[in-house]
Amino acid sequence: MKFLPVGYNTQDLEKQAKNKWRWQWLSECDSKGMKWTDWLKKIDVCGVAYCTFCGKTINYKSNGKKALKLHCEDGNHQKIANVVKTNSVSSILAI
Questions:
Q1: Who has the most CB within 10 Å: 32, 73, 79, 84?
Q2: Domain positions in the chain
Q3: Would you say which domain of life the source belongs to (predicted)?
C-alpha cells in the first residue's frame, strides 16, 4: 500500500470507481471539528482510502463521501480521535 501525495492525478487509478476520489474531501471536518486531512490518506487502490487513526481501509467507490463520513462517526474512530486531540493539546500546553 502506497500513500499518494495530495493533488496526485487519480484519474487513471479511479476509472472503475462509481464515486471517484476528490482531494477537496480532505478539507472536510467531522462533528467534533477535526479535519479529515489529519487522518485520511488516499492510497494507490481504486476506490479505497486509509484511516491513519484506526489503521483501516475505507471503501468509498460505491458511496463516496458518505462512506468517509460514516467512518469518522464510528465509535472506535471517535475514541482514537479524542486521544489524538487530547494528546496534541496536552503537548502544546506543556511547552
A1: 84
A2: 23-93
A3: Eukaryota
Q: Could you tell me the end-to-end alpha-carbon distance of the chain, in angstroms, rounded to an integer?
A: 36
pLDDT of residue 31: 85
Which long-range contacts does 70-78 make (Cβ < 8 Å, 24+ apart)? 72/30, 72/34, 72/36, 72/39, 73/30, 73/31, 77/39, 77/51, 77/53, 78/32
| pLDDT level of residue 90 (50, 70, 90 thresholds) | low
Beta strands 40-42 and 56-59 are: unpaired
Would you call 37 exposed, middle or buried from its count of C-beta atoms within 10 A (0-12, 13-18, 19+)? middle
How many whole angstroms separate alpha carbon 24 and alpha carbon 73?
19
d(C-alpha 75, C-alpha 29), whole Å: 16
- Contact 87/59 with Cβ under 8 angstroms? no
